[in-house]
Write a structure and sequence with these properties.
heterotetramer; A: three-stranded antiparallel beta sheet; 6 helices; globular; B: alpha/beta; Aspartate Aminotransferase, domain 2; binds pyridoxal-5'-phosphate
Chain lengths: 139, 405, 405, 139
């Protein structure tokens, strides 16, 4: 699936909750719980993305011209957000990742998680994903 | 007693909604909200009295100087100080501590000297001393905690040596709300003849403080945690240090005469206030102090204790909650965690209900290491908080716990 | 061009009377007045958005952080800086200079090293260096003045030696209004490979400043002289120093991890902003910058030049007046004396007519010694001043001269 | 004359000007010009009272149980104010000087000169005069 298609899928999924933020967050928490954990060997200092509070581990590799991301976080809501990012970007071509706007986060009403407050590591995580993608274009 | 409804009406921000819910502001340990009188005092200064101070002959400058110096007096009186020159305006607690650390590093502190801190300390009362210690071969000694997370005063006494040059300690733990035993501090520092710095950032907002009686060498606090504006705070110096603390920073307004070779400095507070001060900040700070004095520091303390005890009791009844340093004698602060959950998740969900709490390490990472946690959820009260808010918070916390399970 | 009447209406303080007379505020070099947008930005922050920043997960904290960081961006853009992390919030020019002096003193400056200053310097750009020099055996070298009170750039070049470690110089003389030749400074500091600090306290309020083009190592200015609030200012660091300037002060908010033994610091601006910043001040400062940008820095400069030239011409026609550093190329400031009269007397009487001027040494005693006077009368303009005010001032000055004779 | 009587005299003198500040200041300037200068030998560093701007020199001696003050200033308006102070306090008994309220300054509408702004040295001068008086009581 193309990035836009995954985004559209997520949008539809969240539209279902309307203004019911509790349902939305319960879904996010479920997503967090379902995130395939990163393999223990990748939970390294190097792979850590330091937010001020919740930590995110991210591992990336290139496979058949596509970026494969796996990740984890110690906070479940962050993990839910991470799960969404991975769903959109993992398995995509590096070029497409670099150009991804990620504005679906805004559209599903979770923009606050992408604020630069350092409290979670999500902005840094997206930046890291794009950086890895760039490195793999240049290869 | 005090009429909380009337008090709340004085705080414009409390009238608003967050995420469509009424704001329940339990993040007062980070910064308090401001009453209308404070906001107006700042606005009115800029609208009618703004001018630079001290050196002007024109009317506005004279009036601004008078307001500024009167603010110093108001603050001195609040802390039971007679000589208002002992009150130095700074940009906040952190700035004040740095000024002391930099000043003491010039003559008072030598290589090999020791400073005693407590496990409670905020980074702002650790890092300035660490910076000195690392550069000059100094040593930081740390008062450990007992089982109940109170300070171990027996171990404290054992930390003293001939090399002890300062005790720098917080009056109230910003993370746990526990209150330091000043009697003990005074007794020990007098016994070993060591100066002490009292970090009042978390006590000054909540209780009556009589510096004349406590007799610290240095006392520091921030206006923004005391219903006052950002960018303002004080450094209180004892008579002895007022005359002798070496200058860390310097500049315009601190002098009698200057040549490129030599400067003769002014006396009193001015010597420590280089450059244009935060004039509106000093005036706003004094107005906030007046607001607190009108409520009455004892009333304020009682009300907040009531909230703390009520909240603690309710939290104890929630099986999933782990409390840290629970105690009847506290200054407006409670820390806890929901077992197995990240404080970030708890805080994020409470926020969706309009409840503002703080989560994380609260700038006390060493204390976190000691408690064996990454962070906590902290609720901290001000005079405008109510029992109803506490009950609402408890109700929603239970909801959050269910959601996260 | 610009509609001064409309601009004046935005300044509440200008609507008031002093000593029963309309306020003619010519003391802008000391501090400027504030437009309503700035006063409101501060008030609104406290009324609707107040919270501590950076570490909070709750909505108010996030919004306050966004406002604060957006303010940094606004200021960076104004000074033509791409990386806003190079803008450090401080409490003002004096604080900024002290931070540089204290930081450089840690490694960069050694005993016997030399710093070049100019005769123009404000005490705030002398004393911090003097403090270092006296403690560490450093040497201050001073660029002398020519007959016309401009800087002697030939003598300047001769001051350089292998021991020169810094040039710290004002962009505009706060006493004379004369503008430093930045081309020359850049050329010489590059030729001798010496870092330079530019004191923009008196230039930033009056002219367009492109730091990307000037390429100083350090640039400093104060919000309160730029239509902004008190207690706020910036320290701009070049990319090189952002990563390497040693910390002078430290505390909460600057770190990644802390133990009592060791601290890992954060990167960028945060490293230099310990403690709770003057959040309302940063927001007010950015609002003031937007106000200036809306007027347009070039329009502002033109208007003030017009006032300066008009006033200088009129003053030259008064036999009793002695002008200092009169020149067509100035940034809003004129200094003079009435022959045989003390500036204090002149200022006191002008004040009775509602005219606020500054008298005295203007925190530039070395310059006073060089001019051979105790003090001067200084008038300094802002964008809201008018030709009518200048004419009124000239008329009353003549009256004052008669009274004093 | 007793202190109160001199004060009353000055009050009447200034009442004459009503709200006309120009006349009042012209009078003050005249008073400044008429101040008997301090003898050059007393214009010492020790006798200087440093305001931020105008300087005041003050000399005091005890003569027949009364304090005699002479003074000068480099600013004429300050000198006029100094002349008033001297007129009230010079030739008085130390005890009376210590107790003098000096509120006539307020009443003649020149209170601003006694503000703590450091710009002139008048507050310091009054303090110095009282201090000298105290020293001479203790003798
Ligand atoms: C040239 C110059 N430098 C530094 C300063 C000090 O600025 P602040 O008092 O805002 O710290 C001033 C203010 O008068 C100034 O004019
Ligand atoms: C105990 C304690 N000390 C110091 C500080 C630092 O205060 P500020 O950020 O106002 O400088 C705080 C603020 O959180 C504190 O709680």
């Amino acid at each position: 699936m193309k990035i836009e298609d995954v985004e559209k899928e997520i949008l539809e999924e969240f539209e279902f909750f309307g203004d019911d933020w509790e349902a939305k967050y319960e879904h996010l928490i479920d997503l967090g719980k379902s995130l395939p954990l990163i393999e223990a060997q990748f939970k390294t200092e190097e792979n850590i993305i330091q937010g001020c509070q919740s930590r995110v581990w991210l591992n990336s590799e290139l496979k058949d011209g596509k970026m494969i991301f796996t990740a984890d976080s110690d906070a479940i809501i962050t993990k839910g957000m991470v799960a969404l990012m991975i769903r959109v970007l993992s398995g995509q071509k590096p070029e497409d990742i670099v150009n991804a706007k990620m504005d679906f986060v805004d559209k599903i009403g979770l923009k606050e998680h992408l604020s630069p407050t350092r409290a979670n590591g999500l902005v840094s995580m997206i930046n890291r994903m794009k950086k890895e993608a760039i490195l793999n274009i240049e290869k | 007693m005090i009429d909380i409804k009337k008090i709340r009406e004085q705080f414009p921000i409390l009238q608003q909604k967050v995420n469509g819910k009424p704001l329940v502001y339990f993040d007062n340990g980070a910064t308090s909200q401001k009453p209308e009188v404070v906001i107006d005092a700042i606005g009115n200064f800029y609208k009618t009295g703004n001018s630079n101070i001290h050196r002007g002959v024109h009317t506005l400058s004279r009036l601004a100087t008078e307001q500024f110096e009167q603010s110093r007096k108001t603050i001195a009186t609040h802390f039971h100080i007679k000589n208002e020159q002992q009150i130095i305006f700074t940009s906040g607690t952190t700035d004040s501590i740095n000024k002391v650390a930099q000043g003491l590093a010039k003559h008072h502190l030598k290589s090999g000297d020791e400073i005693i801190l407590s496990t409670y300390e905020h980074h702002s009362n650790i890092l300035p001393w660490q910076l000195w210690a690392q550069k000059n071969g100094g040593v930081l000694k740390v008062i450990p905690l007992l089982e109940d997370n109170s300070l171990d005063y027996v171990a404290f006494e054992n930390l003293f040596s001939e090399k002890t040059k300062l005790v720098a300690i917080t009056h109230v733990s910003n993370t746990l709300g526990l209150i330091t035993n000043l009697q003990k501090i005074k007794e020990l520092t007098q016994k070993y003849n060591v100066p002490f710095l009292l970090d009042g950032a978390q006590s000054a907002p909540h209780m009556r403080i009589d510096l004349n009686q406590i007799e610290p060498d240095f006392f520091v606090c921030s206006a923004h945690k005391m219903y006052g504006p950002t960018g303002a705070g004080i450094l209180y110096l004892s008579e002895k240090w007022l005359g002798t603390l070496p200058l860390a920073s310097t500049g315009g307004g601190t002098i009698k005469t200057v040549t490129f070779e030599k400067t003769e400095y002014a006396e009193g507070a001015l010597r420590f206030e280089p450059g244009t001060p935060h004039i509106a900040g000093a005036i706003g700070f004094a107005t906030a102090i007046k607001f607190m004095d009108e409520v009455g520091m004892n009333h304020l303390y009682e009300h907040e204790s009531y909230l703390v005890n009520h909240a603690q009791k309710a939290l104890k009844q929630i099986r999933e909650v782990e409390l840290y340093g629970a105690n009847d004698h506290k200054a407006g602060v409670i820390s806890f965690n929901v077992k197995g959950q990240h404080p970030f998740d708890v805080g994020t969900l409470l926020d969706k209900y309009g409840i503002a709490v703080r989560t994380g390490h609260h700038c006390t990472q060493p204390l976190m290491q000691c408690l064996g946690v990454q962070g906590t959820v902290r609720i901290s009260f001000a005079v405008y908080n109510t029992i109803e808010e506490v009950d609402f918070f408890i109700e929603k916390l239970k909801k959050v716990i269910t959601m996260l399970q």
